[in-house]
Amino acid sequence: GRATATAGDFKLQEVENLLQAFSTMGITPDAGLVEAMQGRAIATAGDFDPQAVANLVWALATMGAKPEAGLLEAMQGQATVTARDFKPQEVANLVWALATMDIEADELLLEAMQGQATVTARDFKPQEVANLVWALAKMGVKADARLLEAVQGRATATARDFLPQGVSNLVWALATMGVKADARLLEAVQGRATATARDFLPQGVSNLVWALA
Fold it and tell me: Is the dihedral of CA 145, 51, 64, 71 positive or negative?
């Protein structure tokens, strides 16, 4: 198509916007277009800010596309050097996307993202907390103790706003990582689970019961 043929002229924002639009609409674009957009992203990787990195990788994950090795290296490298500018949603989305695509993330990137998440933990929303911890558990990462303390504190403080899937994912992730959850957190999430029990899906119930056993 036209977008594939003119990919070399696409600016950073246009690459990000196009892929995010396809992802949001649930449309799987032509493989040639995805390849062309990834090539353009590699060429302009040095201009990517945290939001652009997170949005691009998130879009690929939600479309079920696998990033090319060159793009993956470029995006992880750019995220690592700009980690201190990442906002909570960008941290959570990036790590979630890598885990969803079953990608073995670079150790330096994971260290940088965990450090930034620890510093900004008070600004994390419930879904961002759940997605981040779930992603780390899925990748088999041994989470930093300071991060675990910070996110558990944040989850406890915002427990009333957790959705059922967030509750089950958070508790499942902590159990999977072999983390003994804080007593206050357990009390808070069990209360939330009780209040929202009618909205739990069978898998969520199963994960929750397994994690609390």
Answer: negative
- The candidate with the shortest Cα–Cα distance to 101, out of 64, 127, 76, 130, is 64
Could you identify the residue written with the tokens 């949603």?
89
What would the two tokens of residue 171 be?
């508790």
What are residue 57's phi and psi, to 5 degrees?
-65, -40
Please classify residue 104 by burial: count the beta carbons closer than 10 Å to its beta carbon, then call 0-12 exposed, 13-18 middle and 19+ buried.
Answer: exposed
pTM over 0.90: no
How confident is the model at residue 10, as a pLDDT?
Answer: 60
Residue 201 confidence (pLDDT) above 80: yes
Residue type, 116: Q
Amino acid sitting at position 185: L
> 180, exposed or middle or buried, with CB in 10 Å at 0-12, 13-18, 19+?
exposed
Residues 91-109 have pLDDT tens digits of 999 999 999 999 999 999 9
